[in-house]
């Protein structure tokens, strides 16, 4: 991303962000309102920059949005924002149907992710009756079934209790995909390759978790 700035109306929320993300696991931290979610949304074109350029594998999010979205999955903080279909299996299948994936292959891919995320027994259950943790796993399954190469998580554990936070953290840890995780839960980032600290719309620190998390905590205290 080169010289990226983003404004919502009159309000400048990101300024002068230039960086390349090449690491397997990148964390993003910072105070409320510092621009983390906006940054995360830039990565798959949910938000396009007001100025500057965001490239994903050389694809411009402004002009090649479909291809960018196919490569970069996005998991929202609130799984209810992402779950749109009545049953668990239908919800996971929805994106594949949209893509025109044939029924047999759809069934195989849906089954695979439901088993992987412990949801196979809930296949025909109403999605809205799942627990918060199961809903977040369903939202993750719905993103991963599409076969993205990278996944952005925007505060994926904020609404979860301790057990579900650990479960989702383990799921993220085990992913082979390149991931970017926005979080206020600093312990999620322990094994990460790189952490960005946002402050008032700029990248204020950028380094290993050991370097940046200490810097951030000291600054906040
Ligand atoms: N769609 C929008 N329209 C107008 N202002 C917005 C919009 N989305 C975010 N903002 C504002 O932009 C600023 C940055 O928001 P952003 O969500 O990127 O911050 P954040 O660091 O993710 O915050 P948090 O930790 O609270 O989630 C905030 O002041 C927010 O109120």
TrEMBL record:
InterPro entries: AAA+_ATPase, ABC_transporter-like_ATP-bd, ABC_transporter-like_CS, ABC_transpr_CbiO/EcfA_su, ECF_ABC_transporter_ATP-bd, P-loop_NTPase. The keyword Aminoacyl-tRNA synthetase does not apply. Keywords: ATP-binding, Nucleotide-binding, Transport. The keyword Transport applies. GO terms for molecular function: ATP binding; ATP hydrolysis activity; ATPase-coupled transmembrane transporter activity. GO terms for cellular component: ATP-binding cassette (ABC) transporter complex. Residues 1-220 form the ABC transporter domain. Belongs to the ABC transporter superfamily. This is Biotin transport system ATP-binding protein. It comes from Trujillonella endophytica.
